Amino acid sequence: MNRAVSNSRARLAAFSASSSLASEAWDGRFRLHKPRGQHLLTNPRVLDAIARHAALRPGDAVLEVGPGTGNLTARLLASPADRVTAVEIDPRMVDAVTARFGALDLAHKLTVIQGDAMETEFPKFDVCVANIPYGISSPLIAKLLFGTYHFRTATLLLQKEFARRLVAMPGDSEYNRLAANVRMVADVKLLMDVSKRDFVPMPRVDSSLVEIQPRGAPPEVDLAEWLGFTRECFGQKNKTLGAIFKQKRKILDLLKRSQRSERCTSDAPGTGSGIILGVLDDDGNDEACSDEDGDSGDRAAGFSTEEVGAFKERIAGALESTDLAGKRPSKMSNDELLYLLRLFNERGIWFQ
Q1: C-beta of residue 179 within 8 angstroms of C-beta of residue 334
Q2: 100-114, 151-165, 213-227, 265-279: which range is least confident on average?
Q3: I need a surface site. Which of 27, 81, 331, 343 has the fewest CB within 10 A?
Q4: Residue 33 annotated as binding?
């Protein structure tokens, strides 16, 4: 048996025998705040399964977001990984985790950073393993995948409904902008479901464990442009593309952006330059967009009727050159969407 694995199992057995880790139910040392997403996972079998799915290797640097009182952290420290960095916003949790593993002489392997995960610069890491507060699921995934971090995999415990939307495929009722954007840069897999009864305090919904594995090569597209494009498409994902892109307000908005954006050649495609890290799944239903014609709105927007008409023809030309005008974004693959985006860009229609 590999010596590192053998030592790892021995450490885990020692942890299990320790009175400070054998009882993982919340002992009420301080009040937990549900609105902040403070739900501690206490089921040992589930905690063990998460660590097992993470498949940590000797030499790995692990990032944990929201360690709570350290129930999952214990498993990460018992793994062959070299070090664990835990980011926690609540100073009470920081004190609890620091004291817990300081008493077990593991301070040399653990670094605890007090701070907001969305504002904290993460150190280099190979694997992210986390029971994420539900409120930051989408922006944290955006930060991991569209930021500057390079890592092997992220094993994340998420709200079940959110996880289903994350792994949805084109044509599924849950398919959305979040799934399309994440799949542009990563492969996503559903690993297991976790009951709400395995948490203290018990949340209102069940959870699911997912694995996100970034792709090795960046996509051949400006990611900021792609994100802008999918926002326009999935804002009304159940309308056809032809209906979406003939709306007067949308035409004027795209004309503004396209005229404002003399494309900067210094930004190489695929770098994601200019991406604002935030919510990826802000699908909406922008029914307020108007289909009305007339030149008063054109003049108010600073364009002549002729300019708007010509730009509208460019949009129509891009759509008519494909068989995609009658399709709905919720049923389209990323390859189809990417093809249409390139046709738009070739005609000087920009979304960033």
Answers
A1: no
A2: 265-279
A3: 27
A4: no
Q: Which of 89-103, 150-164, 297-311 has the highest mean pLDDT?
A: 150-164
**R_g (Cα) of the chain, nearest Å:** 24
Domains within the chain, CATH numbers bracketed? 20-214 (3.40.50.150), 219-264+303-351 (1.10.8.480)
Beta strands in the chain (DSSP E): 40-41, 61-65, 83-88, 110-114, 127-131, 153-159, 186-194, 199-200, 207-214
What number of other Cβ atoms are within 10 A of residue 195's Cβ? 12
Task: Give the end-to-end CA distance of the chain in Å, rounded to a whole number.
Answer: 54
Burial 155-166 (b: 16+ CB within 10 A, else e): bbbbbbebbbbb
Is 287 annotated in a binding site? The answer is no
Global pTM?
0.84
Q: Binding site annotation covers 242?
A: no
Cα(157)–Cα(190) distance, integer angstroms: 10
DSSP notation for 187-238: EEEEEEEE-GGGEES--SS-EEEEEEEE-SSPPSS-HHHHHHHHHHHHTTTT
* 224-251 per-residue burial string, b: 16 or more CB within 10 A, e: under 16: bbbbbbbbbbbbbbebbbeebbbbbebb
- DSSP, res 61: E
| pLDDT tens profile 211-264 | 999 998 888 899 999 999 999 999 988 899 999 999 999 999 999 999 876 444
